[in-house]
Specification:
Blueprint lengths: L14 E7 L22 H20 L3 E7 L14 E4 L3 E4 L5 H4 L4 H10 L4 E4 L12 H4 E4 L4 E5 L6 H11 L2 E5 L16 E3 L3 E4 L7 H13 L3 E4 L2 H5 L6 E5 L2 E7 H6 L2 H8 L3 E5 L2 H4 L5 H4 L1 E2 L7
Parallel strand pairs: 1-2, 4-5, 7-8, 10-11, 13-14
Antiparallel strand pairs: 1-15, 3-4, 6-7, 9-10, 12-13
Protein name: Amidinotransferase
Organism: Labrys monachus
Pfam families: DDAH_eukar
């Protein structure tokens, strides 16, 4: 019998976009509400390490059968360009979304050559651009702000300045998702800035920092919804979330589904949690400690491509 993880899943893309930075630094403009950032002065050594980490991560993914479209960022005005999942997403049926970003520096990350590549290599029917909401202060930072269940059509979203309810409602209507909004706070009571740091929805399981969800009723509703969709819920502790254990992405590799996460995240997982994940997907750890200083981990560096290839 063919292993479960080798069958096609709309949840697990077989291709991703990554951006390799040439002048990486930690974005001071986003530090106010991103508690995952670790400040460090810009330096050539920091930039070189970040460049090397993305290079090795892309090579590792490709060795495992994931197609990586690697773009270069040689600019010095886009410190978070290494996290492309925030400014665009792709969807089955040939749909692409462009998102409104809170920080002005992040708005400069949107680039036409990425969209042109998608149109050339994949079947793209339309591009819906929400960036016009920025002057009104309405932000929705892509699959950072939302964790999308492509199977059950649910958009899980932590309430924050980077996830405006009006923008979320527009996206959900256009792309046929049901929004499930909730509040989440860290150990110090600070609101979580992005949903994908505390939650990962894969084909057969979901990782989630349940202790961080402040409303018990909503917590039960989310667990019930995930379990009703046939998923095993793997609860992560607040400490594990702080070590990026929730910032992972399921992908389709050459020999089955894989869960891409960082070496930091893998080291934070307990043996039982690892076993639960490995029932469905192979764990693939990527070493990106320099990138993680900017407040995001592996999932943030990967913009999954849920489009049909041409030819």
């Amino acid at each position: 019998m063919m292993p479960k993880s080798s069958t096609y899943s709309i949840q697990a893309p077989a291709a991703v976009v990554m951006v390799r930075p040439h002048h990486f630094t930690v974005n001071t403009e986003t530090a106010a509400d991103n508690r995952f950032q670790t400040g460090q002065e810009p330096s050539e050594d920091l930039a070189r390490r970040a460049y090397d980490e993305i290079t090795r991560a892309a090579e590792t993914l490709e060795r495992h059968g994931v197609a990586v479209h690697l773009f270069e960022d040689t600019g010095e005005q886009t410190p978070d360009s290494v996290f492309p999942n925030n400014w665009f997403s792709t969807h089955a049926g040939g749909h692409v979304a462009l998102y409104p970003m809170k920080a002005p520096s992040r708005r400069r990350e949107r680039r036409g050559d990425v969209i042109d590549m998608l149109k050339a290599r994949y079947r793209v029917q339309d591009v819906i651009d929400y960036s016009g909401l920025e002057p009104d202060g309405l932000f929705l930072e892509g699959t950072g702000a939302m964790v999308l269940d492509h199977i059950d059509r649910v958009a899980y979203a932590v309430r924050s300045d980077r996830t405006d309810p009006i923008a979320l409602e527009r996206f959900s209507t256009h792309f046929n998702f049901e929004p499930m909004v909730f509040d989440a706070r860290d150990a110090d009571g600070i609101a979580v800035y992005h949903t994908n740091v505390l939650m990962c929805v894969a084909t057969d399981f979901a990782l989630i920092g349940l202790d961080m969800l402040t409303d018990a009723t909503r917590r039960q509703e989310i667990v019930a919804r995930l379990e009703r969709s046939g998923r095993r819920v793997v609860a992560l502790t607040t400490d594990q979330i702080a070590r990026f254990a929730g910032n992972a992405l399921e992908l389709q590799g050459r020999q089955g589904r894989i869960l891409a996460l960082s070496t930091t995240a893998l080291a934070a997982l307990e043996r039982e949690q690892i076993a639960a994940i490995e029932d469905s997907a192979m764990l693939l750890a990527l070493d990106i400690p320099t990138i993680e200083r900017a407040g995001g981990s592996v999932r943030c560096t990967l913009a999954g491509i849920h489009l049909t290839p041409r030819g």
